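User: Please check token order:
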Amino acid sequence: MKTYGLLYAAGDAPSERIGEKICTAIWSYGHPVRILTIADAALQDLARLRLIVMGVPMTSSTDVHSDWCVLEQKLGSLDLSQSYVALYGIGDQKAQSGCFMDTMGRLHQRARAAGATMVGYWPVRGYRFSASNALVAGKTCFAGLAIDEHNQSELTAQRVSRWVRGVMRDIESLELA
């Protein structure tokens, strides 16, 4: 069985809480998931994971959790060409309207540069923000699942479920190609 992992910054309760929901949903497809904090994850082990789900905390475009800063720097030395990477971010589209999910965008660029196949893009439909560095696919999608527990918490469970279904479908399609 292929190993899946979920990575988040230690002490980031929202990313951990949403990550647990994502893991439960992935398990329902028959895939066990190793939950790791960035501090506990050995970088060489990351490259061995078939799917790496990364949880990005709510930050401004310049205020990034120190664990992610370390990982961002080290991603350049990893070969993720045999891995799929899916991102999820926690944010506040009102308070961070001008930089909504920017850290997700930075991590997306680093993971792609490390050779990862990115999966789990998420439509921007249903969000209100003025700018984001996480936009892909002609600016119609975020580079991963965008969760806004401050303004749209009632949508979180449905979004997680739909997103995980899409990630599993993306991987299946790519592996059949």
User: Anything to note?
Assistant: Residues 4-176 form a domain with the Rossmann fold fold (CATH 3.40.50.360). Strands lie at 4-8, 33-37, 51-56, 84-90, 117-118, 122-123, 135-136, 141-142, 145-147.
